[in-house]
Specification:
By secondary structure, the chain is mainly alpha-helical. 43% of the residues lie in helices and 4% in strands. It is globular.
């Protein structure tokens, strides 16, 4: 192995080790109860709809949801007409140019995906003081703790310890790696007005948007659990049948 390769390996190892140490500095997320926990878990549609509202009115200004198609909102209980109206609030670039060979924007349709707030990472960093707001499509899968992490982060902003040095664009959050985060506290009391009349407390909004982002990351969770239960029941029944057949076959053998 050449000296250059050895040096490169050392640098890579140091970076990974540094990231691991930084990650370990974050507090463990609060342990919350979620309706989708356990073998019989399921999503609460009312909470999912409120979470979508929080995402749209609060989070979508900085964070994208590019892997989620509008048509999948049917899983949340929306009708086809409601989904069409929701999608039409966004504009997307048409896949093909017009008759003059120019690209153009059109209202989104249910077949399109959520539109990211920035055209690229550079634009996102420029608008956020150098910080890059991550896409939230898979956030509960990408972060240890899943929904617990999202909830804890959103409700975890607090005053920094005495003597901690930070810039004016940093905020203290013990659940974030390194404890200093560039995102200002996104939630405040009554930041949204829920259509179902639920009180929009910080706790409620954090719970609902964490629930919604879990669905965005795992939209087939309920179907997977249902299939798993059916498979387990089938295996139990088959095991019973095989045991009965074995006893029948060997009943005359002494």
């Amino acid at each position: 192995m050449t000296k250059a390769k050895i040096f490169g390996f050392f640098v890579a190892f140091s970076l990974v080790g540094g990231q691991a140490l930084a990650s370990s500095s974050a507090e463990h997320p609060k342990s919350m109860h979620w309706s989708f926990d356990g073998v019989f878990g399921h999503y609460e549609r009312e909470s999912l709809q409120r979470g979508l509202q929080v995402y749209k009115e609060v989070c979508s200004a900085c964070h994208g949801l590019r892997l989620v198609a509008f048509r999948t909102l049917a899983d949340l209980g929306y009708s086809e007409a409601e989904i069409k109206a929701f999608a039409a609030q966004y504009e997307v670039q048409n896949a093909d140019p017009n008759d003059d060979g120019e690209m153009f924007n059109r209202p989104a349709t249910p077949a399109d995906h959520f539109v990211s707030p920035f055209p690229n990472e550079q634009a996102a960093r420029a608008a956020n003081g150098g910080a890059f707001p991550p896409d939230l499509s898979l956030i509960t899968k990408a972060r240890e703790g899943g929904a617990d992490y999202v909830y804890s982060l959103l409700t975890g902003y607090t005053a920094p310890p005495a003597g901690l040095e930070k810039s004016d664009t940093q905020y203290y959050n013990p659940y974030f790696s390194g404890h200093l985060i560039g995102m200002p506290p996104p939630l405040s009391e009554d930041a949204v007005t829920f259509a179902d009349g639920t009180k929009a407390t910080v706790d409620q909004m954090a719970h609902d948007v964490a629930n919604f982002l879990t669905w965005a990351s795992s939209p087939k969770l309920e179907k997977q659990k249902s299939t798993g239960l059916k498979v387990m029941l089938f295996l139990i029944v088959m095991t019973g049948i095989l045991i009965a057949v074995k006893k029948k076959i060997w009943s005359d053998v002494h």
